[in-house]
Amino acid sequence: MYVRRVELINFRSYERVEVDLDPGPSVLVGRNGVGKTNLVEALGYVATLDSHRVATDVPLVRAGAASAVVRCAIVHDGRELLVELEIVPGRANRARLGRSPVRRPREILGALRMVLFAPEDLELVRGDPDQRRRYLDDLLVARLPRFAGVRADYDRVVKQRNALLRTAYLSRKVGGTRSQDMSTLAVWDTHLARHGAELLAGRLELVAALGPHVAKAYDAVAAGRGAAAIAYAARLGDGLTPDRPALEQALLDRLAERRVAEIERGTTLVGPHRDDLALTLGDLPVKGYASHGESWSVALALRLAAYDLLRADGIEPVLVLDDVFAELDTGRRERLAELVSGSAQLLVTCAVPEDVPAALRGARYDVTPGEVHRAPAA
Amino acid sequence: MYEGAIQDLIDELGRLPGVGPKSAQRIAFHILSADPADVGRLATALRKVKELVRFCTTCYNVAESEQCRICRDPRRTEESICVVEEPKDVVAIERTGEFRGKYHVLGGAINPLEGIGPDNLRIRELLARLGTGAVKELILATDPNTEGEATATYLALMVKPMGIDVSRLASGLPVGGDLEYADEITLGRAFEGRRAV
């Protein structure tokens, strides 16, 4: 899959820009702050309906404009598909597939598959566990769309269960006991265990499949101090296997054990929404022990592993490396180039074009404020 | 802003579900220009719905007398009860013509986020109906979402010990549609719930 053409109207710094792209590697060159990342952010938005930089849509729309439009022509298996997304802050976005409007923007998901590595991804390593759970769940959904439903169901059950526990907590505080509330807690327990086991099994299978890809990617991009490994850190304990009925029973048992604590705290303490992905280098955890450079390399390795895994599944996503090569020395640049060569499409952004290895120097685009121009072939 | 009565009407219409300010204005001006007899009928219908419609004392469906049309119908069996969330679900199931038993309308689903527990639903009334021994089968037709599923599980836990058959509606693909147009969540669930033929 590759993006043949992208058009932005009132997106971030661009009033209007059209860029024709080729399959294989392309390099976007420009000084810091001219809008290289804006361009890949727009593509990322079409792929995930979310920005990797901001939580709200307001900054995506150029000051003074009511809405932003991103239009892409995506070529997949020799067929071209037109995707258009209009971003309207504070209201529902509007999307078109081909020439016809779709009922929900969600329907364009899957039209463009993309793996993006950006400097913000350092948070994957340094940030809270929710960042790593999101990384796992996003990848899970990209491989098996059914998990979008499992994830939504699980989140909803946790929300409802928390609301129930909070009322129980509050009514205990004023001295009353409402046994009626507690009679439905058993119901939410069974649903939490059922959806939780499903999600847990999915994540365990994913981590097992992903592990070798992470080790390989880290080996290529890191200066070679120890091997990187990932492990699923479940609150249920170590050594879990993706056996759904067993996981469901284990969750039910743990819920029974923690019942009193849950009512005292007024929140759900058991389940995969409190798990983490453990990252290690050699024998040491990455968080707290690894240097900035090592942490950054682990974050990059996680994204590259996701890319590798999707490719192994037969999905050929677009790969975007935002501001990556400046952080790497020559040897590691070459190894990264080798790892990602043969991509259906690779978009690289950089300030200094010489940072990008020769093997990845495809078409070059010069980015200046508000404009993108293809440089003539050398 | 308009003056007096017309603005009052726009404000009232704007309170209705699914009616925004623009639609409220359009409807208000339509009413203003409509034949007085038509408007009179609408006004009567609005008044009558609050005066005459009550809830059936047996199943809590909407009714115009003590009992609803379905509960009064002697041709329908007392042996099976279908549990739904809202009166409009009764209408939906009636359209199928498949079900010849009686209904029980809960008036919602268990939803702790909105403060709705079993006490706020007509569950005690359902258990009383089941306690008479005439009922052999209970069909749980609550919505296929988180709250509807939780309500179904809750009812199953309460009712199964009474020796009554409890079943839940199946979920899966819409009939008459194309497989390719089903969203991946529905299709994924249909795969999980596949059965031998």
UniProtKB/TrEMBL annotation, chain A:
<keyword id="KW-0742">SOS response</keyword>
<keyword id="KW-0234">DNA repair</keyword>
<comment type="function">
    <text>The RecF protein is involved in DNA metabolism; it is required for DNA replication and normal SOS inducibility. RecF binds preferentially to single-stranded, linear DNA. It also seems to bind ATP.</text>
</comment>
<dbReference type="InterPro" id="IPR001238">
    <property type="entry name" value="DNA-binding_RecF"/>
</dbReference>
<keyword id="KW-0963">Cytoplasm</keyword>
<dbReference type="GO" id="GO:0003697">
    <property type="term" value="F:single-stranded DNA binding"/>
</dbReference>
<dbReference type="InterPro" id="IPR027417">
    <property type="entry name" value="P-loop_NTPase"/>
</dbReference>
<dbReference type="Pfam" id="PF02463">
    <property type="entry name" value="SMC_N"/>
</dbReference>
<feature type="binding site">
    <location>
        <begin position="30"/>
        <end position="37"/>
    </location>
    <ligand>
        <name>ATP</name>
    </ligand>
</feature>
<dbReference type="InterPro" id="IPR003395">
    <property type="entry name" value="RecF/RecN/SMC_N"/>
</dbReference>
<dbReference type="GO" id="GO:0000731">
    <property type="term" value="P:DNA synthesis involved in DNA repair"/>
</dbReference>
<keyword id="KW-0235">DNA replication</keyword>
<keyword id="KW-0238">DNA-binding</keyword>
<keyword id="KW-0227">DNA damage</keyword>
<dbReference type="GO" id="GO:0005524">
    <property type="term" value="F:ATP binding"/>
</dbReference>
<dbReference type="InterPro" id="IPR018078">
    <property type="entry name" value="DNA-binding_RecF_CS"/>
</dbReference>
<keyword id="KW-0547">Nucleotide-binding</keyword>
<feature type="domain" description="RecF/RecN/SMC N-terminal">
    <location>
        <begin position="2"/>
        <end position="352"/>
    </location>
</feature>
<keyword id="KW-0067">ATP-binding</keyword>
<comment type="similarity">
    <text>Belongs to the RecF family.</text>
</comment>
<dbReference type="GO" id="GO:0006302">
    <property type="term" value="P:double-strand break repair"/>
</dbReference>
<protein>
    <recommendedName>
        <fullName>DNA replication and repair protein RecF</fullName>
    </recommendedName>
</protein>
TrEMBL record, chain B:
<keyword id="KW-0479">Metal-binding</keyword>
<comment type="function">
    <text>May play a role in DNA repair. It seems to be involved in an RecBC-independent recombinational process of DNA repair. It may act with RecF and RecO.</text>
</comment>
<keyword id="KW-0862">Zinc</keyword>
<dbReference type="Pfam" id="PF13662">
    <property type="entry name" value="Toprim_4"/>
</dbReference>
<dbReference type="GO" id="GO:0003677">
    <property type="term" value="F:DNA binding"/>
</dbReference>
<keyword id="KW-0227">DNA damage</keyword>
<feature type="zinc finger region" description="C4-type">
    <location>
        <begin position="56"/>
        <end position="71"/>
    </location>
</feature>
<keyword id="KW-0233">DNA recombination</keyword>
<dbReference type="Pfam" id="PF21176">
    <property type="entry name" value="RecR_HhH"/>
</dbReference>
<dbReference type="InterPro" id="IPR023627">
    <property type="entry name" value="Rcmb_RecR"/>
</dbReference>
<keyword id="KW-0234">DNA repair</keyword>
<dbReference type="Pfam" id="PF02132">
    <property type="entry name" value="RecR_ZnF"/>
</dbReference>
<feature type="domain" description="Toprim">
    <location>
        <begin position="79"/>
        <end position="174"/>
    </location>
</feature>
<dbReference type="InterPro" id="IPR006171">
    <property type="entry name" value="TOPRIM_dom"/>
</dbReference>
<dbReference type="InterPro" id="IPR034137">
    <property type="entry name" value="TOPRIM_RecR"/>
</dbReference>
<keyword id="KW-0863">Zinc-finger</keyword>
<comment type="similarity">
    <text>Belongs to the RecR family.</text>
</comment>
<dbReference type="Pfam" id="PF21175">
    <property type="entry name" value="RecR_C"/>
</dbReference>
<dbReference type="GO" id="GO:0008270">
    <property type="term" value="F:zinc ion binding"/>
</dbReference>
<dbReference type="GO" id="GO:0006281">
    <property type="term" value="P:DNA repair"/>
</dbReference>
<dbReference type="GO" id="GO:0006310">
    <property type="term" value="P:DNA recombination"/>
</dbReference>
<dbReference type="InterPro" id="IPR000093">
    <property type="entry name" value="DNA_Rcmb_RecR"/>
</dbReference>
